[in-house]
Design goal:
Helix content: 10-25%
Shape: globular
Distance between the termini: 44 Å
Number of helices: 2
Largest sheet: 4 strands, antiparallel
Number of domains: 1
């Protein structure tokens, strides 16, 4: 799945992923007003194997398929992306 990524020039570290380049009509007007102006930064293929730095790629793909867009907000200070717990190793 192709994704087109834009950064908000109004909201620092906030990114918009679109399923169709420049298809801003999918965004609710209040959301678009909060993010505008937007600057195109990247076209990326979101495969199941693709890792993203600050978002879960599966969630981004799901939002693009259902809504046509995904918003990546700035990280919350002190919070990290949830990482799967390491499998417990039985004592040998």
């Amino acid at each position: 799945m192709q994704a087109y990524v834009y950064k908000s020039l109004r909201k620092a570290d906030t990114y918009l992923f679109l399923s169709v380049r420049d298809d801003f009509a999918r965004l609710p007007d209040p959301l678009r007003q909060q993010l505008d102006p937007l600057q195109f930064v990247l076209e990326v293929e979101l495969t199941p194997e693709r890792k993203l730095a600050r978002a879960d790629a599966a969630t981004v793909r799901e939002n693009l398929a259902e809504r046509g867009f995904h918003i990546q907000f700035p990280p919350v200070p002190g919070a990290e992306l949830a990482k799967p717990a390491e499998a417990a190793q039985p004592d040998a």
